[in-house]
Amino acid sequence: MEVSGDSDNLKNRPLTPLRILRGLIILLIFLSTAFTFLIYFAPPFALALRLLSVHQSRKSISFIFGYWLALWPYLFETINRTTVVFSGDTLPVVEKRVLLIANHRTEVDWMYLWNIALRKGCLGYIKYVLKSSLMRLPIFGWGFHVLEFIPVERKREVDEPVMLQMLSTFKDPREPLWLALFPEGTDFTEEKCKRSQKFAAEAGLPTLSNVLLPKTRGFTVCLEALHNSLDAVYDLTIAYKPRCPSFMDNVFGTDPSEVHIHVKRVLAKEIPASEAESSAWLMDSFESKDKLLSDFNAQGQFPNPRPEEELSILKCIATFAVIVSLTVLFLYLTLYSHSFLKVYVGLSFTYLSFATYYKFRPSPSVGSCKESKSH
Fold it and tell me: Are 112 and 123 in contact (CB under 8 A)?
C-alpha cells in the first residue's frame, strides 16, 4: 500500500545487477548459517540439555539463535539502509514478559519486530503464533520449531488445545518471553478487506478500511494463559514507505525505504480478564489502528515520533564475522575432518526433520524437573 505526503519523494530502489548479486550472496549466507547453526547447536541444546532443564535449554537457545537472528535487523537497517521510525510510547528495558499484537500489512511484518526486540535485549526470547504451513519451510521450519513458535491451523477447535498446551509451558514469570500475535490472521489485501467489511456490516461490527477485523479468540487465549505473568501488552501499528515489501524486497534491498512502528504500551493488569471484555478491548484497538493508518496515509507519519538508538555498524560487522567464521569452520570440519562429524550431521538432520514434523520436544526427567523449578 502506498502512502501520500512526503512518501512521494521516496521511491523503491531499482533492482540493479549489483543488488541482485548482493541479494544472492546475502541469501546464501543466511541459509548456510541457519542450516549450520541448527545442525550443530540444536541437538545439544534443544535435545540433550532440555532433558536436564527446560530453563537452561531455553536460555542457551535464546543466546545462540538470538545472535543469529540479529543478522536480520542489521540487514534491514545497516546494509539495506531502511530507516525504522518509532513513535508513541517509549518501551522500558526492564520488561521481559510481554505480549505483542500488530496489524498484518505484508508477509514480512513479523521480521521487523526483531528490530524492537534487539534494542531491548530480548531478541532470542521472541516467539510467534504463526501459520502451521510455515513450519514446513526448508531449514527455517526447523528454526521455528527449535525457537518454540506456536503453529496454528486457523481453526478454533484445532488451535485452542495446541495454544493452551504450549502456553502452559511459558508461565514461569522468571523466564523472559516476547510473544507476538497478528490477530487479523492473514496479511492485508484489498480483496480481503472487502470480505472483512461485508462480514462486519452483516455482524454489526465496525467497518475498517486499513486493517481486517481481528480474530479475538487467539488473543483471549494468550491472555487467559499468561495474564498473571505478563508485564505489559505492546500494541503495535506498522506502516511502510513507499510501499509494503515482500521477502525478496528485503533480500535485494529494494523496499522499503522506511518502516514506521507506532507503539502503545498497556499494562497487562489494565486489560479486562473476561473473554467478552478483552475481545471488545481488542476490537477497540483495531479501530484505533485503522484511524492511525488513515492519518498515516494522509500525513506520511504517525503521531509523536521519537528517537531510538541506531544499530551499531561495528556490532553488525562483528556479528556477521562471528557467524560466518563459525559456519565456515563447521563446514570445513564436516567435509574434511573425522567421519564422526559426518555421522553427527546426518543424525542431526534426521532429528530436526523428525522433531519438526511430529512436533516433538523432550521433557526433562523427574529429578531434573525439580532442579529446573528452583532456578
Answer: no
- Which residue type is seen at 200? A
Label each residue of the chain as H, E or C.
Answer: CCCCHHHHHCCCCCCCHHHHHHHHHHHHHHHHHHHHHHHHHHHHHHHHHHHHCHHHHHHHHHHHHHHHHCHHHHHHHHHCCCEEEEEECCCCCCCCEEEEEECCCCCCHHHHHHHHHHHCCCHHHEEEEEEHHHHHCCCHHHHHHHCCCEEECCCHHHHHHHHHHHHHHHCCCCCCEEEEECCCCCCCCHHHHHHHHHHHHHHCCCCCCCCCCCCHHHHHHHHHHHHHHCCEEEEEEEEEECCCCCHHHHHHCCCCCEEEEEEEEEEHHHCCCCHHHHHHHHHHHHHHHHHHHHHHHHHCCCCCEECCCCCCHHHHHHHHHHHHHHHHHHHHHHHHCCHHHHHHHHHHHHHHHHHHHHCCCCCCCHHHHHHHHCC
Span 155-203, pLDDT tens digits: 889 999 999 999 999 999 989 999 999 999 999 999 999 999 999 999 9
pTM: 0.92
Give me 149's grid cell.
Answer: 513458535
Query: Side chain identity at 65, as an amino acid letter?
Result: F
